[in-house]
Amino acid sequence: MRSRSKPLLRDDQIAKSAPRKTRDPAQPNLPFDAIPDRIEPALALLRSKAPSGSDWTFEVKFDGYRVAVHIEPNGIRILTRGGHDWTSRFPTIAEAARDLGVGSAILDGEAVVLDNRGRSDFSALQRSLGGRGGKRVSTEAVFFAFDLLYFDGHLLTNTELSVRRHLLTDFLDGATGAIQLSEEVDGDGDKLLETARSHGLEGIIAKNRESKYRSGRTGDWLKIKCVQSESFIVVGYEQSSVARGGIGSLLLAARHGNEWKYVGSVGTGFKERDAIDLKRMLDKLATKSPAVPMQGKRLVFSQPTLIAEIDFRGWTTDGHLRHASYKGLREKQDNASVYEFLNEE
Fold first, then answer.
1. So which residues are the catalytic ones?
2. How far apart are CA 296 and CA 337, in angstroms?
3. Bridge partners of residue 208, in order along the sequence
4. CA nearest neighbour of 309 among 7, 66, 64, 47
5. Distance CA 15, CA 256 (A)
6. Cα separation, 224 vs 55, whole angstroms
7. Taken in order 198, 202, 203, 207, is the CA torsion positive or negative?
């Protein structure tokens, strides 16, 4: 069995948040709120530099599927970012939620699969679920909770993050099973990012301590990545008689207004099994009308349907990805956002 050690950053110059005091049980009698059917998630804005100042707290950026765990009187629901019910896909997380002993709660966080060094691995998560469109359940997945949106009959979205984290820490601190706490880390954001890079992590998330929970990309949460990673649409592939699986590279595009813009190809990162599955799916989507203008003898064009997660090191002057590497396909239910060029780009 894989290690489930927490993917924490360890650096003598960066101190972990001081332990919180136990919540005072003598609370005022607040009116009870009905548990929401779903809460649209708060999203992080991409920034190249970490913010500074005491208003910000930091966490590890996970590389998995954003989900919300609903603990309700009638049972457990695990919802994807797009609102699809994936309870059956994450049975160990659902079981761990039942064992928390909480009457009602909504936990916001990320479902991940950890490698043997305790780092989240998107490709491993995809394999555990059977790939895009797969029906397999993942018993390896771990849910890292980083926010508490509803608890014990009270809606917390209008409460400051510092208070929500206090409550979340109260009943998850020390948990080591399929549901764990995403640890907060205090320290200088730039040093923290450098430590994350040295550990081979995805990046860090910065959050405003006093912010309320607001859906969408409001700027209350920021993501700073060690390696750039974005979602692109697959518009075809280059045939290969040498590469195993018959795919030499995938052809990628990004949104540009109401059209697609070609951003180059990716020929590394997928194994033979990945290439075979990709070719089978793309051949079913084959079309003679490419989504972006291009020509080539060995190119097979496909309808712009499949969304691939790609690591890359930057952009060339002509708008193509540099040193791109394939990580896996995003599920439609994940509601992943395809990279979009701004008008000035």
1. 61
2. 29
3. 56
4. 64
5. 42
6. 17
7. negative
Q: Is the CB of residue 67 less than 8 Å from the CB of residue 98? A: no
Structure tokens at 32: 């009870």
Q: What is the mean pLDDT of residues 256-274?
A: 89
Report CA torsion sign: 34, 28, 100, 213.
positive
Neighbours of 74 (CB within 10 A): 6
| Structure confidence by residue, pLDDT tens digits, 207-231 | 999 999 999 999 999 999 888 888 9
User: How far apart are the C-alpha atoms of 151 and 167, rounded to whole Å?
Assistant: 9
Q: Where is average pLDDT lowest: 21-30, 83-92, 238-247, 289-298?
A: 21-30
Phi then psi for residue 280, to 5 deg, are -60, -45
Residue type (1 letter), 31:
P
Residue with tokens 């200088």: 188
CATH of domain 42-225: 3.30.470.30
Q: Give the model confidence (pLDDT) of 150-190 as tens digits.
A: 999 999 999 999 999 999 999 897 788 999 999 998 889 99
Q: Which residue bears the tokens 């409460």? A: 159
Q: Which residue has the tokens 């750039």?
A: 228
Helix, coil or strand: residue 71: strand
For residue 234, list its beta bridge partners.
Answer: 252
Residue by residue, DSSP assigns 233-251 as: EEEEEEE-SSSTTSEEEEE
Instruction: Report the 10 Å Cβ neighbour count for 295.
Output: 6
CA atoms within 13 A on the CB side of 24: 4
292: tokens are 């972006």
Give residue limits of the domains in the chain. Answer: 42-225, 228-334
In our burial notation (b when 16+ CB lie closer than 10 A, e otherwise), range 169-207 reads bebbeeeeebbbbbbbbebebeebbbbbeebebbbbbbb
Q: Report the Cα–Cα distance between both ends of the chain, in Å, rounded.
A: 46
DSSP conformation class of 222: E
> What's the pLDDT at 270?
84
Q: What percent of the chain has pLDDT over 90?
A: 52
Q: Which CATH number fits domain 228-334: 3.30.1330.60, 2.40.50.140, 3.40.50.300, 2.130.10.10?
A: 2.40.50.140
